Amino acid sequence: MKYLVTGGAGFIGSNLVDALIERGHEVAVIDNLVTGKKENVNTRAVFYQADITDLGQIEPLFKGIDGVFHVAAVARIQPSFENPDLYFRTNALGTRNVLAAAKKHGVKKVVYSASSSAYGETPLPADEAAKITSQSLHPYGSTKRMGEMLMSDLGTMTGGPKTACLRYFNVYGPRQTMDSDGPYPTVIGLFLGLKKKGKPLLIVPDGNQRRDFTWVGDVANANILAMESDKVGNAEIINIGSGKNYSIWDVARAVLEAPQATPEELIASGKCSYAPQRKGEVRETLANNSKARELIGWEPKMNFFDGIKKLLEI
Ligand SMILES: NC(=O)c1ccc[n+]([C@@H]2O[C@H](COP(=O)([O-])OP(=O)(O)OC[C@H]3O[C@@H](n4cnc5c(N)ncnc54)[C@H](O)[C@@H]3O)[C@@H](O)[C@H]2O)c1
Are 23 and 129 in a shared domain? Predict the structure, then answer.
């Protein structure tokens, strides 16, 4: 098949491109390199430096494409408070442009990288049927939710492509950013980066928040299953999360390879230090992943501790 991956120079997109090429597909990548890097892109993929906010620029690149994985987005929570307009342009208008170009060229399916941040505070484990409150926690979360709505409105309902929305939960793995200013810095990447620099791991605010961490290879696999499954095509929302969660202290212990250390010991030794709370972050995330198992036959394969071990070896 001939697939197009938007955001294919970024963390998740580039891992997805590798997985598609490994399975023998032809892949084209669209990325404006705002956070992505050209060197992340598999040399067997065709790369176009283009911006999804410019329909005229991207539209011809959809010719002859069977399926699109729409991964591109501005993907950090904190800067969305300072520059919400960029988030609306990229994550909402850009998504509309991807769907318009896909419709024009008769693309069969678009699989959208949605986000669990659309839930805000929700009863756990988060269920796709949960009511999303109109009051979002941040412009990033609302614009990712808008993308899901566009997958419905501009999909088969209005003669567009089949669509599916995969709500990822804290993705980690190779090529994740390790820099606090980098794209979507998640705690595992930040801790690995701080450890490499010999700096204390920053615990925000008390380390007892819990996150459902999902290995990027499992996320790539979910995308391919959703693209290939006949059971999805009508903007179904599907959680892609491991179904287990770990505290920030668990991450610190795993990264520092100190499985028995208590928080008090890690602070006293200077290996960790406290940092103030940030706006817009939920206390805990945890996916109910039964819909992914039923609809697309997905199951998470990577165990959290094995995943961290793998990253420590890179
Ligand atoms: N990383 C996570 O834990 C996580 C969790 C939930 C959802 N997501 C979603 O997954 C997707 C990928 O996230 P990521 O962590 O790989 O982030 P990333 O920043 O590494 O990847 C996003 C890519 O999109 C590109 N891009 C941004 N704006 C663009 C534009 N206007 N035109 C073309 N390309 C553009 C960037 O250059 C980058 O390569 C995003 O849609 C994000 O919302 C990520």
Answer: yes
**pLDDT for the residue 185:** 64
The pLDDT score that the predictor gives to residue 196 is 93
Catalytic residue among 140, 172, 184, 246: 140
Question: Does residue 219 share a domain with residue 191?
Answer: no
Centroid of ligand 1 to alpha carbon of 24 (angstroms) = 24
What pLDDT was estimated at residue 182?
Answer: 54
Instruction: Give the residues surrounding ligand 1 with Cβ less than 6 Å away.
Output: 7, 9-13, 30-36, 51-53, 71-75, 90, 94, 113, 115, 144, 168, 170-171, 183-184, 186
SS (H, E, C) the chain: CEEEEECCCCHHHHHHHHHHHHCCCEEEEEECCCCCCHHHCCCCCEEEECCCCCHHHHHHHHCCCCEEEECCCCCCCCHHHHCHHHHHHHHHHHHHHHHHHHHHCCCCEEEEEEEHHHHCCCCCCECCCCCCCCCCCCHHHHHHHHHHHHHHHCCHHHCCCEEEEEEECCEECCCCCCCCCCCCCCHHHHHHHHHHCCCCEEECCCCCCEECCEEHHHHHHHHHHHHHCCCCCEEEEEEECCCCCEEHHHHHHHHCCCCCCCHHHHHHCCCEEECCCCCCCCCECCECCHHHHHHHCCCCCCCHHHHHHHHHHC
The pTM for the full model equals: 0.97
Positions of the chain with pLDDT under 50: none
Instruction: Assess whether 119 and 194 both reside in one domain.
Output: no
In this prediction, residue 77 carries a pLDDT of 87
Is 140 catalytic? The answer is yes
Residue range(s) defining the domain that contains residue 276: 187-210+245-284+307-313
- Residue 162's pLDDT is what? 98
pLDDT for 175 equals 96
Tell me how far the alpha carbon of residue 25 lies from the centroid of ligand 1, in angstroms.
22
